[in-house]
Amino acid sequence: MSLAHSHSRAQLGVHAPAVSVEVHLANGLPALSLVGLPETAVRESKDRVRSALQSCGFEFPQKRITINLAPADLPKDGGRFDLAIALGLLAASGQIPAQCLDNYECIGELALSGELRPVRGVLPAALAARDAGRALLVPSANAAEAALARGLTIIAAEHLLALTAHLSGAQPLEPYSGKTLEPSPQAHLELADVQGQQQAKRALIIAASGRHNLLFSGPPGTGKTLLASRLPALLPPLSEQQALEVAALHSLNSSASLSHWPSRPFRQPHHTASAAALVGGGSSPQPGEISLAHHGVLFLDELPEFDRKVLEVLREPLESGAIEIARAREKVRYPARFQLIAAMNPCPCGYHGDPSGQCRCSPEQIQRYKLKLSGPLLDRIDLHLNVPREPHSPLATTPGTPSSAEASAQIAAAWQRQLARQGKANAELSLQELQQHCALHEEDRAWFEAACQRLNLSLRASHRCLKVARTLADLAAAEQIQRAMLAEALQYRLSHE
């Protein structure tokens, strides 16, 4: 047969659109033409495929070969199409049965020896192949990741020869039945390890209960980073769908790994990170730190040390829970529903307001330092808290501090109340949902509005105070928001002033 088809998947954000690999052999001078908007790595696949087929003892057709990657307007990048191209060539030249490829999708890069090498982004392709009702041919190194897509038939192999023997029926391979990615053991980070800072721990529990953004401000060594590192262990476990979304995003990124699956991600980029590193980008757009923190925590230490232009790009995803990266040839949308935890010093030297009296910063220096953070960005942070130095000895224990297990139980109970009432976290409530689920008594509403006017809070800030008050009510198992809860929520807006 001079025409054959095989099936593969491209990578477009978190989606894996179908790609049909059409191979046609015609009489004429030997030549190979690869069409269908291939990028450089795809155009180079013809040389890898030729060497791989010859190394495996197959005949490379000495004809005029046209390979079309359809649809033609979809950019194709990477070595993920090597396997589909090689099998299409073998089917078109009659070296394997052409009809054997109808029920398979192929993802994998070929070495010159015919060995199958792993590629990025296999999990989104596996989920799409399962929904399309086809089995998936992948390198063995990608099999455990692909197996996260439950219900998918996976044929994994180390070498091209093993797959061709399977497809021709000479030596069928058993569907992959090995283990999927095992949940990784998590380090036990105990909340009680943080000495003192009862108010900061209270704010951390509130933030975890309603998925609120939180800013710690205080001198060095007061436990800001230590507190932030305890947050992921306090959050409720991911659902299966959420865990798959997180794993799919990490599968797309060459620098990320799935070693912490299925726990919530905790990303801590350095303050020298660029805007592209934080939100994603590049000539071939990749997810950034905010997307890799999807359904998890993004911790920004030394917040004012980040470039202001870098921080400003956080404003849209903090509101929408997604980031759209536009390039001349494509537009990619990545989910980015993360919880922002930030830490900063009160001044350039870090000791403004500290009882030690070490600060030597002028009022102008302190003002310039604080102005590195814009008002709109601070508006999007629900809880602002000063973390002062406390006079504890190095080995002192803090009585009355809840353990991580006790705090997690409180948070889980509050989380269940939110899911039963509105199906989402309080921090994600829209304005209409806010009016529905955060109704106040007339006297409390008048008091709250007057307090917001006196404090000169924006509408966004007042709405976020109301969401925090709703979380305080959920922690107290109260149906109605009380005035004391409104007062506490407003207190967390004053702490940064």
Q: What features would you describe in this structure?
A:
- Belongs to the Mg-chelatase subunits D/I family. ComM subfamily.
- Residues 286-383 form the MCM C-terminal AAA(+) ATPase domain.
- This is Magnesium chelatase family protein.
- The protein starts with a strand and ends with a helix.
- The model has no long low-confidence stretch (mean pLDDT 90).
- It is elongated.
- The chain contains 20 helices and 18 strands.
- The chain has helices at 40-43, 45-55, 82-92, 122-132, 143-146, 160-168, 198-210, 224-234, 240-252, 275-279, 289-292, 308-312, 315-320, 363-370, 375-379, 404-422, 431-437, 442-454, 459-475, 483-494, and strands at 3-9, 18-26, 31-35, 64-70, 104-106, 109-110, 116-117, 135-139, 154-157, 214-217, 266-267, 280-281, 286-287, 297-300, 322-326, 331-335, 339-344, 383-386.
- The protein folds into 2 domains: 3-168, Ribosomal Protein S5, domain 2, CATH 3.30.230; 191-389 and 401-421, Rossmann fold (3-Layer(aba) Sandwich).
- It is α/β, with parallel strands linked by helices and 497 residues long.
- 38% of the residues lie in helices and 16% in strands.
- A 5-stranded parallel sheet has the order 11-14-17-10-18. Strands 1-2-4-3 form a 4-stranded mixed sheet. The protein has a 3-stranded parallel sheet with strand order 5-8-9, sandwiched between helices.
